[in-house]
Amino acid sequence: MKRMPTVVESSTASTSTTRRKLRLPRLGLFCCSLVLAMLAEYCAYLNEGGGGNVRRALHVIALTVFFMVMTLVFEHFISWLGRDSKQTESSQSHPSILSRLLRRIAPDFTGDRHQALKAAGVMAVCWLPYYLLALPSEIWYDTVQQVMMWKGLPNPITSGAWSDHHPVLDTLIFGVFYQLGAWIGHPAVGVALYTTCIAIASIAVFVYTVRYLAKSGVSRKAYLGAFLFFCVFPFIPIFAMAMVKDAVFLPVFMLFSVQCMEVARTKGACLKNRRTLALFIMLAFLVSLTKKTGVYSVALACILLAFVVAGNRARVKLLGTAAASGLVIFILLPLVLFPACHIIPGGKQEMIAIPLQQSALLLREHGDELSKSDKDILTGMLEPNAAENYEWWAVDKIKGTHWTHQRENLLKPFLRVWAKNAVIYPQTYAKAYFMLEQGWIALPNSTVNENLQSSYLYTRTAPGKNADIAGLPQSKYTRLYDGIDQFVIWLGNQFFTQPWLSRAFWATWLPFMQLYETVRRLRAKELSWTYAAWLAPMLVSVPFLWISGGSVTYEGLRYLMPMLGIAPIGCALLTVQQQPSHADR
């Protein structure tokens, strides 16, 4: 990878100008902080079941101030991150022992492949403890179902046939590693081989991402900070090495994100290269094939990039990629491949999970007030006894795993009844939605643990009949993994660490701060649109978090994986020292 040219501003000439341009009104920050505060307090109100209006108002004021202060702290952090590290070091006549040690250890991310191998080695050493804890693998609930499909065993979704309820490509990958282990002597060997391969792949992708940042004009502190984050933030290796479909999706999505960044940086000129275009299309297909919502992420990303690139040819290539991905997912697979391979298509209940959850609560709280026709439609669409089985934290018992002919026939009437009652019972709908998605917006509280968790007890030792039937390994070191999980929970509940380990910080607060600071710099003409478009991966990920089927459960942690991976990108783009007018030179 060649060094990408940048035009660096004079630090002395631009500092005062930058500060003057960035002195913009803070009305936008206040309004956004107020909205975030009201949403967080509304979730607290739902959890606590009431409370005085005065106390709630004071909480909203305090949270508004908290979000504003946190954003201002983030601005100072970005300012520090963007300082020229070489200039800082030269101002020190005697660099500290720590700084000299770090210079020796830190790889040169603008160097050759040997430096890339050095970076991968450093990251591998940092990940080693988590790798040993994960062996043979961290197996999630959905993976057990997929392995049972591979073996043709009855499972919660089918009687033994494959189903597109989970991405077929992920099922194929897990099944191949499982089968390799069975051929060698035990499935656990294949599972451990999967853990090793996914760890190597993830490390390679993270190092590649940091090298791209280093050669794209971001500050040295920014790309070294990204590397440090990938190395030492424990939830990165814990999630990246899991045997779950989201872990397969993560490195693919990171590579696709880097390609989107390159398309934006070059304004589409890179797509003139056939190899680059082929790589972009291939990654778009893989993103679509490894996650059910991946095709929508690809479509949104291509549409956003179409506003940044120069020339209609580049726009046609981007929109053509989105159309081709949709063609594969919505036509080629269900109409050609699935019938030929006897694969059961996935149901539409995944796409209407929120309306189903809201309808279940509607039946539970206002069933007697509904007309007989509306009630018949809702009960026919939902799982049996949906009102009695309603759980505010998950939608699984409401949406089920099967899409029947009855549900297909009732889909349009159901949507009409759902929309009609949204006007009549808005509070019920809001309650169902925000209780389900509160992990992305609410402060951690005593009712719900909304922090990041290691989940080792759940993924390594959780007893389950299906796991035994599938022959998947489970650890007997229950005390060890329970101790680790409890320590992580305790750490997340401490005053100084709780905000940074909350799911809401990574899902909503940090993206908001990155977007807010990007908009300010665009208005102040201190950032070009070619770099602002680096937020596209984040912008296409957040919406699907907010319509997910759970946010506070163990399974909800899986949905957060892409946000953790792309978090450093939104920080790094704000350190680009480049005049907008020279962005394309």
Automatic annotation (TrEMBL):
UniProt xrefs under InterPro entries: DUF6020
Provide an example Pfam family for this protein. Answer: DUF6020
Give UniProt keywords alphabetically.
Membrane, Transmembrane, Transmembrane helix
Q: Where do transmembrane segments lie in this chain? A: 27-45, 57-78, 191-210, 222-242, 277-310, 322-344, 529-547, 559-576
Q: Which domain of life is it from?
A: Bacteria
Q: What is this protein called?
A: Glycosyltransferase RgtA/B/C/D-like domain-containing protein
